Amino acid sequence: MDIVLKGLSRKTVSVSQDAITIAKAGIFTSRREKTLLIRNISSVEVKKPGFVSGFIQFSIAGGKALDSSFKWTGGAYDAVSDENSVLFTGDQNYKIALRIKEYVESWSSSREERNTTPASGSSADEIRKLKSLLDEGLLTREEFDHMKRGLLGL
Prior knowledge:
Elements: E1 3-6, E2 11-15, E3 19-24, E4 32-37, E5 41-47, E6 54-60, H1 76-81, E7 85-88, H2 91-115, H3 123-135, H4 141-152
Antiparallel strand pairs: 1-2, 2-3, 3-4, 5-6, 6-7
């Protein structure tokens, strides 16, 4: 799963299999990266751009609770200073941000489903369960194929 959102202020969000990387390219400094394991992300907020920039903001388990719902800017000004946020403009970037949010949320759901699967099931049973998760939209095709290969030992 490779999704990349190019935001404002030379910041990007990249999605890998089980992590989110937020990178900032500096003008006079070197590139900085922060990687968040998806299992540690407790919530993802996406604000659609309008009068002010939109943003995607990740909350981490045990971190400061973030709620921008009662601010007239929708929290965009706070997101500027949050290292776990990336501001963006445009409908295309908004759609990418929503895809990232959906991926993180479905990753958590599919992980919980995998963790409750009994170990005694056959590989065929496990693949059937993964297929149902794929059909429900809780797994992407890439995730399904990856897990299926793992079950088959490929």
